[in-house]
């Protein structure tokens, strides 16, 4: 076997012509953005970071345009539980999810929210999903919509909740658009928006302006395109995400092999956990649950996004090791959150 | 890292001014009450008990105002199963729990009751929760209320049951108050009262006087306040619990990091198992199930309260080790009861 | 600690006066019946069987009045699966179980039947239990009664089934008595009768005479009493079981710490697996499922009874080791059947 | 113990007279077809393949009339997941399964499809199975038929799906025949047909001619007979399968101890994984799910059939080791798919 080797110091390069398909890449001091771009996937093999002997105090003081989410960063975000804490200390999350045929998305998001540590979790679902949710997640309380098939209205007093996650499996019916609009109007804590909530947002531009500050949007590339338009390449998409995060005063979590997190403050983070076994229906619902749970527990939105994306990917990596990339399913990611949190708490 | 060290012999101290935040505390011979108070949490690090060489026969003969529930006490309470026993020997428990949207509380309490060893378990739930309960806990029998959403009336012959647990998720509707009143009237074995049953009690003082002797109330601090009024500090709350336990001829299990058990006989016990991972919706429902199960198995109320709170916390500690404090859920506590009982039986 | 020691050669003794409470009992060559009697429980400690050097060929040729089911006997019964076998070789079992509030009994019996190896399993339940059964045991087919709450009529063609198990949770309504009568009329393979099927039999003596040859009745002592009347002591009850097994041309499995199996051929077997952790609602339903499954797989009734009771107890012992006697539940027994079968197949 | 030993070079022999029952068989270089025939089962013990020193390059160049599916073949088929893949890369599968009383078949096929790695899975079921499916497989989306009991019409836009699997538990009602006909008309990707879909095909010959190219039929011997008529012996049945695969331009997976795969190109493959513990209701439903999942992931039909049958058997072998041949159930096969895929990925 012949291996190709590339020493690659360049940064913002999107391959669009001839390039070496490198089995191994040597680079200096830190990851380069180029390695993280989907468009470059075929050309980027195993990356080896070479220490070029920079002064230890040099790097941490740099303000990079983008940052790789690493264990040090996560260790600095993670808040261990106070011994005397009670469930009130960990907030009350509401998950708004599901429609007829897609109740499973609500199950996954709710389970993940409970497993990620929220003090209390309520899930709002269409009436036909009532028994499904109560049986699948006895730890959660259920708020049933008056409508059997669709989400139309939340009767609960929203001020009881510290965070909301909306979107998995909700479809895009007119009634559900009204529910989303009411939620954005009345709820003034950060909201996690995913899936069909993003599709509604893309179709109803006025809603975009109603997002509570520091809300978190979690589009995959197609949803991103629907929301913000086409871009020429990955780098252009990243720049657009940065711009939109500032404009909307919201976080944008652009899901992919290396999920990008763009903050309202203009920072870029790339996540380095996760694997192709998570490329399956349900993985995104789990992320929505985790993010909502962390917000309810009083992590701020940037912390929640960085920590949530990291621990979601880490749990996915543990699941892949246990069940293989092919056979692992979204429920496995949830069940591996325990091991993931244990690894995080060992970082300290 | 600089560690602060405190040698701390004082007992009934509630910090309300300046105090050392001790990383390590050295104390003589036994735990001091001060270490167990939530108000002192920020000042109490790891406690080291120093043996000051008291005569071995001295301590056990002391009648302390309060006692720490330890392994010796639990070993003396635990009754191993007689080889020739049949299910009749372990009693028939009834769990009365759930309302529309909170059927999960009934699932958790019932599962815990079954797992804690009751010979037979029946659960009374609102009609809409019927299939949920039968699917989740096939070992239990289900008594469905005529009402789909609320508990209104138990049709079962109550004399068949050796113990009852009431409260998880029942809400506080007028109809449910009537059910609770009827239960207190007709049932003359100890009852475990939790959650909304306590809230009903707080609102209907006449019910308080109808409690069967040696019933067990399991309020968390807010429910305690609703029941018995505000107190100035932790110590005052403990004293009030002691007074009320005597007045009501009932046990009061005041839930918290170190759960307090106050007996009608005027004794105080502090539990030392459990952790902040249990600070989540559902943990209390599990405790209700365990306590009811132990009463059905013929443990007396003091034994049931001490043993139940201990084994609940121990199972929670095992769950935290397996799944982390963040990710552990109430169902995990139930699933870890087996390992907890094995540890208890090894104490002998 | 002082230990009492007893050398005890006597056989048919029921303690009803003064007796030594022996911590250790030494006996010659084999177990004595006296050790197996519930009435003697308090007096029988750990039993040590002493080899008195009988000729190896002597014992196997003895025709004992009763026999202890041991590993050799089980190894001789167990039929390993032929490599080329298909599901048709392992028969089609029907479980008839459940009523409103007791659908769990049907779940447990059906799961056990599937796990014990039947080629196909159908369960007949009241209509309200339809979704419960399909969700809990996807491997089984469901035959729903026209009645939501009770069993009234089986529409299936009974000739498709190789064995039937009836009773767990069926209650004793008049309509269900009719169903049982029809079953006994039309089905000419051995039937396992348990729980309320036995209670119906006890109330309707004419049904007793309709039992297909080599059916298996699995009463606990109270059900036995309802069926066949009171007896003075354990030995008298055993003798009555023997008599009734002959009269009815059926097997009687008298459940207890050492379950007794009386055959139509006049033989007595005592089982020696199982433990007090099985003294809980649901254990009997599991036994019904196992026995029906073995009959469907073409074990004859005596083999099925001996093997089924043995493997049920063995799975219970494994469950007790994993989960403790207190916390183990009927579902655990089912889940441990795999390990139990592996131990059995290793006997060969 | 006396062992019989047979050195057996002959190939196409069906025993129908006197033959040695060999405990051990020695054969040269490779398996002989005779060892794989059910009719020879009683005569074929453990097979030992002796290397006769053929030139290494000789064997791979042979075009055998039949081939044993081995690890090398599987390793050459298996496609590891691209790191940058997203769920769109792994296709959208639709499972069409279930009828009243047989919703479990739909649960098993859907779970298997999800676990075998499809990007998205939708299941079409009769309306009464809605909650069952959503609760059992939250990762899948559910398309409910307008009919509660039977499958009558798929409202979904079929062009969204990359592969379809139809048959488990669907029964053979006239309405369902219409559904199947419509499916064959409108869907132009390969379809996996199993169980009652095959029975419908056997009854409606015109449907047979409508099969999309490279569809996969998975009959067991009786279903095969209904489809294509009786044959004199195993070898004749294999030849008939070969002929029909060509005629129909479809793959025929003839299930048995050594499942045969006949391709439209006139090739024969025998699978060598799997065991008699899979001879139970539900195993076939699992295979349907796996095959459909692999087709959706862009394996071609021959690859999907070879790989799917292999990994199904391998997961079954892992399940047998864990739970015993007797106690293993179809759900266990699904749960062991993870370990099976890990073994496959280690082959490379």
| Radius of gyration of CA atoms of chain A, rounded to a whole number | 20 Å
The side-by-side strand order for the widest beta sheet of chain A comes to 4-13-12-11-10-9-8-5-6-7
Query: Rough shape of chain A?
Result: globular
Structural class of chain A: alpha/beta
Strand content of chain A: 15-25%
Pick out the low-confidence regions of chain A: none
Note the main sheet of chain A. Answer: 10 strands, mixed
Helicity of chain A, in percent?
A: 25-40%
Number of helices of chain A: 13
Jot down its keywords.
homotetramer, 348 residues, alpha/beta, 10-stranded mixed sheet, 3-stranded parallel sheet
Question: What does this protein structure show overall?
Answer:
The structure is a homotetramer of 348-residue chains. With 348 residues, chain A is α/β, with parallel strands linked by helices. Chain A has helices at 58-61, 71-77, 103-115, 130-136, 174-186, 195-203, 205-208, 221-228, 234-248, 283-296, 301-327, 330-335, 337-346, and strands at 5-7, 22-28, 44-50, 66-68, 92-96, 120-125, 141-144, 163-166, 191-193, 216-217, 251-254, 260-262, 268-270. Chain A has a 10-stranded mixed β-sheet. Chain A has a 3-stranded parallel β-sheet with strand order 1-2-3, with no helix packed on it. In chain A, helix 3 crosses helix 10 (283-296) and helix 10 runs antiparallel to helix 11. The B-C interface holds B 80-87, 89-90, 114-121, 130-131, 134-135, 137-144, 337-342, 345 and C 38, 41, 100-105, 107-108, 128-129, 131-132, 135-136, 169, 220-221, 256-257, 275-277, 279-283, 322-331.
């Amino acid at each position: 076997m012949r291996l190709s080797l590339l020493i690659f110091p360049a940064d913002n390069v999107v391959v669009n012509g001839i390039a070496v398909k490198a089995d191994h890449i040597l680079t200096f001091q830190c990851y380069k953005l180029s390695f993280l771009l989907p468009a470059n996937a075929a050309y980027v093999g195993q990356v080896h970071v070479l220490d070029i002997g920079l002064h230890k105090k040099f790097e941490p003081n740099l303000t990079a345009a983008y940052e790789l989410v690493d264990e040090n960063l996560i260790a600095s975000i993670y808040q261990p539980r106070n011994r005397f804490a009670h469930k009130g200390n960990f907030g009350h999350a509401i998950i708004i999810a599901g429609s007829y045929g897609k109740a499973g998305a609500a199950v996954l998001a709710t389970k993940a929210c409970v497993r990620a540590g929220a003090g209390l979790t309520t899930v709002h679902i269409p009436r036909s999903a009532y028994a499904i949710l109560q049986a699948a997640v006895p730890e959660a309380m259920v708020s049933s919509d008056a409508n059997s098939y669709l989400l139309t209205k939340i009767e609960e007093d929203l001020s009881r909740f510290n965070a909301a996650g909306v979107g998995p499996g909700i479809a895009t019916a007119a009634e559900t658009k009204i529910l989303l609009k009411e939620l954005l109007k009345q709820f003034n804590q950060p909201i996690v928006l995913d899936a069909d909530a993003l599709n509604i947002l893309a179709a109803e531009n006025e809603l975009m302006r109603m997002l509570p500050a520091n809300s978190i949007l979690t589009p995959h590339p197609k949803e991103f395109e629907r929301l913000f338009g086409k871009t020429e390449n990955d780098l252009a998409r990243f720049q657009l995400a940065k711009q939109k995060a500032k404009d909307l005063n919201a976080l944008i979590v652009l899901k992919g092999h290396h999920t990008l997190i763009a903050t309202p403050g203009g920072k870029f983070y790339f996540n380095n956990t996760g694997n192709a076994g998570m490329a399956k229906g349900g993985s995104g619902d789990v992320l929505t649950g985790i993010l909502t749970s962390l917000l309810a527990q009083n992590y701020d939105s940037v912390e929640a996004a960085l920590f949530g994306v990291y621990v979601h990917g880490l749990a996915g990596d543990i699941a892949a090791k246990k069940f293989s990339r092919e056979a692992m399913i979204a429920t496995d990611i949830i069940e591996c959150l325990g091991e993931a949190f244990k690894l995080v708490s060992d970082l300290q």
